[in-house]
Amino acid sequence: MVMKNGFQTPDGRRVPVEDAFKDPRHPFRVAIVCAMWLTGFDVECLATLYIDKPMKTHNLMQAIARANRVFPGKDCGVIVDYNGMLKSLREALAQYALGDEDDDGAGGDIVAPIEELVASLRQAIEAAETHLGSLGFDATRLHGATGFVRIEALRDAEDAIYTSDEAKRRFEIMARQMFMRFKTLLMESSALAYAERHDNIEAIYKKLQGRRDTADVTELLKELHRIVNDAIRAAGPGGDHADGLTVDLSQIDFARLRDEFAGKVRRKHAALQDIRDAIEKKLAQMLAWNPTRMDYYRKYLEIIADYNREKDRATVEATFAALVALAASLDAEQRRAAEEGLTDDELALFDLLFKENISAANRERLKRASQSLLASLQDLLRPMHDWTKNKATQAEVEVFILDNLWRVLPRPPYSDDEAQTLAKRVYEHVWQRSFSGGRLAA
User: Fold this and answer.
1) What percentage of the chain's residues is helix, strand, coil (to nearest 5)?
2) Most buried of 66, 104, 355, 383, CB within 10 angstroms?
3) Which residues contact 143 (CB under 8 A, 6 or more apart)?
4) Is residue 3 part of a domain?
5) In sequence order, which residues have a C-beta less than 8 Å from that of residue 439 and are 6 or more positions away?
6) Do 147 and 262 sit in the same domain of this protein?
7) Tens of each residue's pLDDT in the chain, 442 residues
8) DSSP conformation class of 146
9) Which distant-in-sequence residues (6+ apart) come within 8 Å of 437 by Cβ?
């Protein structure tokens, strides 16, 4: 009865079982089905279907089609057959893919012979290994390697792949192609000869996917500075020397950090990717809070575009210096809300409403207007569930924002036309925040 009624959410609502299974973020991820959901039930994120039920013709075709929907991050659907229905599958494919005409025994195999599948797997492995070789990493270093030797080789492979974004994308595509072909041969003993080479490429792929998930740019820079300090400890501590991870970011000597990167860091491409991962995540968070920060994102894209065009040693070192400087500016930008005496959401509204050359008094009035508008919006939106999907509630929120700005914006310097333009800008920001699942925080 509990399953029939769906799942209860923290806010007291209930999510139907069907909707929960279709949502890849919901913990309900495994379902045992005897009928119904096998045909006509579209779950785009479904990747694996286990079959232990005799089926034929259109029922079989519709059942296996449950796993073939396109979904981000999904390369293919996997059908695990516990019922030995290959013959039924051949018949169904022959009927629905080729029609009712007899093929007279000429080229009638729908499923490729095992020998062809194994050859296809070998080609995929060789393509990935060749690509690694073109980047300066010999994949045979991983054959039979264990312990620290294997760890060292995986780190070198990772650094080679991070030579450019294109090199990384090509390797990931090749690896996923290899994974897909290997899955089709899981039960074939002839594929075991390629298992180690497959596993080595998979290990590199997983290392790329398991990059350090560091959201705080400040902590990353602290760690980078600690690494640099460890490298030059014999020279004695300087005035900017950090003790462990307690370094004050504002005291970092970025010129020295850049120089030490150039001279001491061995795997420069991987180090660059560390700081890129951190900056990208931080930028995503900052833009979600405040769309006026788009200039930081444009600057980041310019740095990466320059890096991808030229990848010699000087460019790598210049890119590191540029990213470190950008990271420092992001950290300073994040402190701005506290310096202004505002929350992040209040600062976002303040930035959207701000205009150049206003007096100090009007600037303070604009801060208070931002705080007042945010508080009023919170009261309005609190009881409105999914207001972004309803035309009536959308109009109510848009009019509410305009009415509030007419009341709270200082006149002058703001005109009536500016109030209308700013109201639209604020509405678009509030709508996007709500639609993406964010809440306007106090």
Assistant:
1) 65, 5, 35
2) 66
3) 196, 197, 200
4) no
5) 433
6) no
7) 456 677 877 766 788 888 888 888 888 888 888 777 777 778 888 888 888 877 777 777 777 777 878 887 776 778 887 777 766 776 766 665 555 444 444 444 545 678 888 899 999 999 999 999 999 999 999 998 888 788 888 988 988 888 888 888 899 999 999 998 888 787 778 888 899 999 999 999 988 887 544 334 445 455 544 544 444 343 344 444 334 333 343 444 555 555 555 555 566 677 677 777 777 777 777 777 777 778 888 888 877 777 777 655 566 767 777 777 777 777 777 777 877 888 888 888 888 888 888 888 888 888 888 888 888 888 888 888 778 888 888 888 889 888 888 888 888 888 888 888 888 888 888 888 787 766 665 4
8) -
9) none
Which domain-ending residue is among 316, 340, 364?
340
Same domain flag for 331 and 295? yes
d(CA 136, CA 256): 29
In this structure, the chain runs to a length of 442
Within this chain, do residues 328 and 221 fall inside the same structural domain, yes or no? Answer: yes
Q: Which two tokens stand for residue 438?
A: 């964010």
Residue 399 sits in the same domain as residue 366:
yes
Residue 27 lies in a domain: no
Query: How many structural domains are present in the chain?
Result: 4
For residue 9, tell me if it sits in a domain.
no
The residue among 184, 209, 234 that closes a domain is 209
Residue written as token pair 């208070």: 368
Give the pTM.
0.44
Same domain flag for 58 and 87: yes
Examine the domain organization and report whether 91 and 138 are in the same domain: no
| Domain that residue 267 falls in | 217-340
Pair 183, 242 in one domain: no
**Do 156 and 236 reside in the same domain of the chain?**
no
Distances in Å between the alpha carbon of 264 and those of 257, 317, 320?
10, 12, 13
